[in-house]
Amino acid sequence: MLATMCRVIAGVVATVLIVLVSGLWGQAQTLEIDALRPRAVQGDAWAQYDPGQIFADGRGVPQDYEEALWWWRLAAEQGLTMAMTDIGLMYSLGRGVLQDDIQAYMWWDLAVLRFPMATGEREAAVTGRDSVAQRLSPAQVAEAQRLASEWDAAHPR
Fold first, then answer.
1. Cβ distance 110 to 89 under 8 Å?
2. Euclidean distance between CA atoms 44 and 96, whole angstroms
3. Could you say which of 24, 75, 94, 120 is the most buried, measured as most Cβ atoms within 10 Å of its Cβ?
4. CB under 8 Å, gap of 24 or more: what pairs does 24-32 form?
5. Residue 120 confidence (pLDDT)
6. What is the DSSP string of 22-42?
7. Domain count within the chain
């Protein structure tokens, strides 16, 4: 019951934020983003993920990693593993956020846990996670795993 209420509240908050940010889009919009907006507001995770790709790549808009992360977080909140993988990469590289290997490990670990077995995307997440783990102490890896476990428990599949 509590988990369901949290998901509903998170969905409402995400919708309100999308509506608020929609007014800021006047500066540099693309028809693609405009077409995605109604589905994103309704909670379509892929429609929330795709603007992140557009902003990260700078396709028709100024490249904006912070904006990309904002969209990917919305999609990740709904369990979209591709968004989790991209968030991990951004933390690993310090794009749109301060570089943070613990956060990078956490997001890649979540993607590994949630991707179906034996997919290319899952293997990419494993590679990213294991690469960043080499830069972490055992205590930092444990912290990242704890954070991933807590996030996973708070976001049922």
1. no
2. 23
3. 75
4. 28/60, 28/61, 28/62, 29/61, 30/54, 30/59, 30/60, 30/61, 32/59, 32/60
5. 84
6. HGGGGGS--HHHHHHHHHHHT
7. 2
Q: Are 74 and 90 contained in the same domain?
A: no
Same domain, 68 and 99: no
Q: What is the pTM of this model?
A: 0.79
Domain boundary among 33, 62, 78: 78
Distance (Å, whole) CA 38 – CA 126: 34
Summarised one tens digit per residue, pLDDT across range 45-100 is 999 999 999 999 999 899 999 999 999 999 999 999 999 999 999 999 999 999 99
Q: Where are the beta strands (DSSP E) in 2-152?
A: none
2 and 47: one domain?
yes
